[in-house]
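TASK: fixed-backbone design
INPUT:
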């Protein structure tokens, strides 16, 4: 449901999870260059791996020395970049910091790593990676510079219910947990990418902010979201409405179960939820992902006692890029994680009335965040 939960969005790794676990705060948004009117979709991510294993230096899981000595990764990582567009291959910059450089406050949540700041209403920082530094494969980074200073207003949240509460987190009921504190987020500020400044305004930022945490990343990694929804019924863009979908891998007694998805559509103030963490809704969800030579194509169908939703979306491979991650065990998946920020498609939303379905609205969406990793 559209319910804010700042405790789930805060710093939380404790006990054994701090020795084998991760937290990842993701932000993506659109900006416009005032001189050329070019639009680009940017991302900024703050992540932490195995904080209890940290030292005064970042321990990189892909570095030959640490691999040779069997050491798990431990660091704070700031990832920032831009998705591809018009033949531009995109950019992902990653800068690593030791755990000793991290400053955290819980209430209100505030995190600072040298000049990089994360709070519930602001992100700011700077990364500059030289060509010589980018040649080190263990850093998994491109070369370039990225400076950001943005205010955030998180207008719509996705709360997944009991499945991500403290008890199920402790017993590791999921491989990775998810909380969408800002599935519709309004950003305001500027980004400077390799010397070019872009303006980010609330009305056209089409922003998204969420958090994942757990012992490992989901495989396959599946995510789909959009806060840029246009109604066929009214012909207007819907404010304070958003779609968010996230894949998950449930476990029972440490044995993996059938993969599931968590889905929410907030439509003009009404929440349509399809979470197995919401037992009274009894959701049934189906999905498939198709890959062609030029595109990724997603199809979702979900239903519960009161509603049915059908979603079709796609994104050009030219506007997606493989993002690089290592999990808390220091392993990198051989299957690339493809991600983009320009997915388009349609949503059909129906309400159950008696024994039939009544069309509520047909929506078109743009500027969709999409991520997929083959299993």
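OUTPUT:
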């Amino acid at each position: 449901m559209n319910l804010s939960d700042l405790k789930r969005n805060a710093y939380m790794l404790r006990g054994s999870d701090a020795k084998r676990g991760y937290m990842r705060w993701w932000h993506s948004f659109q900006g416009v260059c005032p001189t050329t009117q070019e639009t680009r979709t940017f991302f900024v991510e703050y992540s932490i791996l195995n904080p209890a294993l940290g030292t005064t230096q970042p321990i990189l899981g892909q570095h030959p020395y640490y691999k040779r000595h069997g050491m798990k990764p431990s660091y704070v990582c700031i990832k920032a970049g831009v998705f591809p567009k018009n033949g531009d291959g995109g950019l992902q910059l990653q800068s690593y910091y030791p755990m000793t450089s991290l400053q955290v406050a819980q209430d209100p949540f505030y995190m600072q790593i040298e000049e990089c700041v994360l709070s519930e209403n602001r992100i700011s920082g700077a990364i500059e990676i030289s060509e010589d530094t980018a040649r080190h494969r263990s850093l998994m980074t491109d070369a370039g510079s990225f400076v950001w200073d943005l205010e955030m207003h998180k207008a719509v949240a996705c709360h997944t219910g009991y499945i991500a509460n403290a008890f199920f987190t402790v017993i590791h009921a999921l491989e990775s947990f998810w909380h969408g504190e800002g599935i519709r987020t309004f950003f305001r500020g500027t980004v400077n990418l390799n010397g070019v400044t872009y303006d980010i305004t609330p009305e056209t930022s089409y922003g998204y902010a969420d958090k994942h945490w757990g012992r490992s990343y989901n495989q396959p990694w599946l995510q789909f979201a959009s806060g840029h929804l246009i109604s066929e019924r009214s012909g207007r863009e819907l404010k304070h409405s958003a779609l968010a979908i996230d894949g998950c891998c449930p476990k029972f007694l440490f044995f993996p179960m059938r993969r599931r998805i968590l889905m929410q559509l907030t439509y003009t103030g009404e929440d349509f939820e399809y979470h197995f963490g919401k037992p009274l809704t009894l959701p049934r969800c189906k999905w498939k992902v198709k890959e062609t030579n030029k595109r990724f194509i997603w199809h979702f169908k979900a239903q519960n006692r009161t509603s049915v939703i059908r979603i079709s979306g796609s994104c050009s491979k030219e506007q997606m890029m493989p993002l690089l991650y290592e999990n808390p065990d220091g392993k990198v998946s051989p299957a690339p994680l493809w991600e983009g920020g320009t997915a388009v498609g349609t949503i059909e939303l129906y309400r159950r009335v008696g024994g039939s379905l009544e069309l509520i609205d047909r929506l078109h969406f743009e500027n969709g965040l999409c991520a997929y990793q083959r299993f």
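COMMENT: The domain at 15-373 is CATH 2.40.370.10 (AttH-like fold).
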